Amino acid sequence: MYIDGQWVQADGGRTFPVTNPATGEEIGRVPDGGTAEARAAIAAAEAAFAGWSRTTAYQRSAFLYRAWQIMLERKEDLARLMSTEQGKPLKAARNEVQYGADFLLWYAEEAKRVYGETIPAPRGDQRFVVLKQPVGVVAAVTPWNYPISMITRKVGPALAAGCTVVLKPAEATPLCAVEMFRVFEAAGLPKGVVNLVTALDPKPVGEEFVTNPVVRKITFTGSTPVGKMLASQAAANMKRVSLELGGHAPFLVFDDADAEHAAKGASLVKFLNTGQACISPNRFFVHRSQVERFTAVFAERVAKMKAGSGLDDSVTIGPLVNEAAVAKVEAQVQDAVAKGATAVAGGARLTEGALAQGHFFAPTLLAGVTPEMRIYREETFGPVAPVIVFDDEDEVLRMANDTSYGLAAYVYTRDIGRAWRCMEALRFGIVGINDINPTAAAAPFGGMKDSGLGREGGHEGIDEYLETKLAGFSV
Ligand code: ADP
Prior knowledge:
By secondary structure, this protein is an alpha/beta fold. It has helices at about 35-50, 55-75, 75-85, 90-110, 150-160, 175-185, 200-210, 225-235, 260-270, 290-305, 325-340, 375, 395-400, 415-425; strands at about 1-5, 5, 15-20, 25-30, 115-120, 125-135, 135-140, 165-170, 195, 215-220, 240-245, 250-255, 280-285, 340-345, 365, 385-390, 405, 410, 430-435, 450, 450-455, 465-475. The strands form 6 sheets. Strands 14-15-16-13-12-18-19 form a 7-stranded mixed beta sheet, with helices on both faces. Strands 9-8-7-10-11-21 form a 6-stranded mixed beta sheet, with helices on both faces. A 3-stranded antiparallel beta sheet has the order 5-6-22, with no helix packed on it. The radius of gyration is 23 Å and the shape is globular. The N and C termini lie far apart (about 50 Å). The mean pLDDT is about 95. Keywords: Oxidation, Oxidoreductase.
C-alpha cells in the first residue's frame, strides 16, 4: 500500500493472494488493509490537501504530464502485468494502457482551463465573481475489468482540480494499481497527494470512505447494488458522489443497415474484454430482414476466435474473472435455452486441455431470445450475444429503453433521419451510430438511471471534483 509517500504493509503483515484467471496460478500477494489503513490514508490526504490545492494549475499539469510520460515508457510492462492479472489479450491490454494514459494527458491540459465567471449583479455597487475550487479529499473505488484506465480516469481529473486522493482497487487486480502508484511516485507527486489501500474485503475500507467526514467526494466504478449502497451511505454525510455502474446495452440493426458491417462491429464490441465491460452490448435487436445475414457473419467470426491466456499472441478472447462469473453466464445461457433460445455458436464452458485451469466460457451466439428470458433483463458481463428479432422502429426503441440501465446503446442504420431519431430517443448516456467505440479521454462517459451519476472524461470530468463558489462584492 502507498500511504503518505511510503510503501507500507498492513497491520500485522496480513496479505492476500492474486491469481491469474487464465491459469489459476498465484502471481503475487498484496497487503490486506482495513479500517486503520484507510483512516491513515485519509489523514495523509487531508494533510497534503492544504499544499496541493494551493499549487498552480501549471504545477499540477506538469506532474500529470510527467506521469503520462512515465506511464507510456512503462506501457509494455503494464500491459503484460494486466494480461497476467486480469486476463485480457496483450493487444487489448496495450490499448487500455494507452487509453488510461490519455486521461493523464487530457487532464494535464484541462487543469489549466478551470475557468470562473463574472456575472452582472443586481445593484450598481455590487460585483459577482464565481470561482471553482477543489472539493477536498476524494475516495475512489475502482473495478477489475479495466484495472488501469479506471484509476487514471478518476485520479487524473481529481489531481488536476487540486484534490488529493485515496484509492481502493478491486481485490482481483491490486497489482495493476500498485504499478500505477509507482508511476505516480516516479512523477514526484508530493507525499499524501495520492494514497493506495489494498484490501481483500472491500467493506471496512468502503465504510471508512463513506463515513469519515474528511472525505468530501466518493467516486466509484462497479456494480449497481454496491454503487447504490455507497451513495446512500454517502448521503448521510452529504458527500458528493460519481457512480459508473452496470449497463445493459441494446444494439439495434435496422433493415437499411449494412448487416455485414453491423455483425463485424457487434462481434468486436461484444467480445472485447470477454464481454466484461459496462458498455458491452447485452441485447442485439436485429430487423427480421437482416437476421439471417447478421447471424451468419457473426457466427463465422466467432468460429475464428481462440480462447486462452492473454499473453499468447494468437489468443483473441481471454478468461472471465472468476468461477462465479462463469457460473452466472452459464446459468443465463441455460435459462435461455430452456425457454426456447438456440445456441448458434458456443453455449458452454471451455474445459479442453489447459483451459480447464482457468475460467473460460465459449463465445456464444443465442438466436430466438425473448423477454421471458433472464438474459433479456440481466447484465451478463460475459461473452454471450443474444439476438432478438424486431419489425419496426417504434417497437424496437420501446424494447431498447425497457431496462433500468442507461449507459451505452448502439445503432446501425444508413438513414440519417432514423439515426438522429434513435440518438434522441434512446435513454442512454452514450450512443454509437454505426460505431462501436464511442469513448475517449476527451469525451464524457457515463450513464442514466441505474447506470449511475456524473460523467468521467471530457471537460465535464473535472467538474465532478470542483465546488462552485460565488463571491458578491460591495464596491
Ligand atoms: P463487480 O461485480 O464488478 O466485481 P463490485 O461492485 O463488487 O463489482 O466491485 C467494484 C469495486 O467495488 C471493487 O473495488 C470492489 O472491491 C468494491 N466493492 C465491493 N463491495 C464494496 C463495499 N461494500 N464497499 C466498498 N467497496 C466495495
